[in-house]
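Protocol step 4 of 6: structure prediction from sequence.
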Amino acid sequence: MDTIELFKRFVSTKSETPDDGGLLDFIEKYLEDFDAIRVDVKDVKNLFIYKKFSEGEHLCFAGHVDVVPAGNNWDTNPYEAVEKEGYIYGRGTQDMKSGVAAFTQALKETKEFKGTLSLLLTSDEEGEAINGTVKLLEFLENNDMLPDACVVAEPTCEKEFGDAIKVGRRGSINGYLTLNGKQGHAAYPEKAINPIHQIAQVLGNMAGVDLDNGDEFFAPSKFVVTDIRSGMQVTNVTPNDLQMMFNVRNNTKTAQKDIIAFVAEHFEGLDYELRLTQGSYPFNTNTDTKIVKQIDKAISTVTGINPKHSTAGGTSDARFISPMGVDVIEFGVRNNSIHSVNECTTRKEVEDLYYVFKTLITNWE
């Protein structure tokens, strides 16, 4: 198989989270010269496959074979790779079977490397992500097998292939706040404590406010209110309490303690409870590290473009890899149709992604 044939094989396999559609078994057999380790957990399939070519650093390529549900109103069968006018359509074409096909083929064809090459693959990235990459990393850490550097082949490019890599990601903090009042008759507001009136006095100074100034890599951490509900859906009773939910996509300058202090400042004197959860933490890979310099050089060699270093967007499994002390970046095809109807990428982008990874492997030293 060549890269495009492999890519179409992947896209034509239905693998909605946590089902891998048998793709990990296929990849294990496809890379028959590599050693394979399976760390399957419940319904989630996880594969680590590696080969030590010589003494040297360990370079890993990571990704996921699972996809989100296709939804309705596609112009083609979402689980058949359909090629039209240079585009290949199907669920997962951008996110991220293009990346998996490109680095799998690159490893398949590698005969020499100064160190160890590996793949880290899961079927649990689009779901809860609790039994996927994190479980593989736990195994690798316990067995002293963690890589030195890692490329996650998520779609990162913006307007043209090669224009952006991810050198970091924001974290995500969820907030759940209850403001307590005292229920009463609307005709006697002085006898009640109306939490809606209370929050109305402070919300304008909180909603949409930047919690820091950001920096050269990260946008400011913003306090984003996502839900407010209170009352009994009647006009003559004021509510006993109010619930508000919010989210902060935080950079490295803002942590949970800062959000707790921010809320306390604005809710001073009010009766409230606050609970925070955090599913991902911000990370930033130093642009002077070898993996950043080498992927920049490989992209420039293949495309003639010097990519910008971005931290924009949501989360990926790189958020689990970086805290393990691994230098990690993300690079893949354009990100303009992920999770949408008629998701697609171009044949050329998939081929060029393969060439970038081949160049990175060949020049790694």
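Step 5 (inspection) to follow. The chain has two domains: 3-169+282-363, 172-280.
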